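ok trying this again, last paste got cut off
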Amino acid sequence: MKTAIVTDSTAYIPQELRDSLNIYMIPLSVIIGGETYQEEVDITASQFYEEVRSQDKLPTTSQPPIGQFVELFEKLSKEYDAVISIHLSSGISGTYQGAVQAGDMVNGIDVHTFDSEISCMVQGFYAIEAAKLANEGKDVKEIMTALHDKKTTTRAYFMVDDLSHLQRGGRLSSAQAFIGSLLQVKPLLHFVDKVIVPFEKIRTRKKALKRIENMLEEDVKKGYFLQASIIHANREEEAKQWKAELEAKFPEVEFTISYFGPVIGTHLGEGSMGMGWSKKVAM
């Protein structure tokens, strides 16, 4: 059985890596000043942050139309027996449900959907490992089991400069825990039950990053071979410096740098920073 791996643009997997692993991508869109752009296709992350600074109103985002999924799945049916479609958390977007509905509409190929319950490169970790397993000839059941197992070791935390973007976008649950105490606080957030919730209130950016680092260290001590990604919203130099410090401290961890692209960046705001990690399965 030949299995195709599909994900969406919010995984922010570099195109050259997608191409080398045969990962297919469905883009979400961002609307800026009345113009619609498919992220990772029509607009890059750096272009997005530059454009947003010149706008009076915040951008908005939209999920892919179901027809885009149907078209891709039908195309894949000519070459593959099955599809595993891996998407950002269903608690913050309808993209996953769109893939489910499209899968029911297509004949000639078995579509299996996977809710990553997260986003960005941590979502990308699932797609990358699924693709490696598919390229090794593993069947759908083996790949889906590996993805579910991976969830047990996946963690991600991120810091925003303030909560205004998330509050206005309706992507933050339990926001009341922070309202009235945002001054000089760097809210640390994470995903719980598919939605974004506050984790801790921390006074400075430096302390927030240190707190994330300490939580990574807890998992390193468990003896897992971890892959970790530092994720930033237009703060590449800061991300590079943090990566160098982390690599010196945790040589056994495989670190990469990724970014909050236009869709996720719309809801987090420029300057956000985070890190996610999980046990690496496919080598």
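PB: full thing came through this time. The chain has a mean pLDDT of 91.
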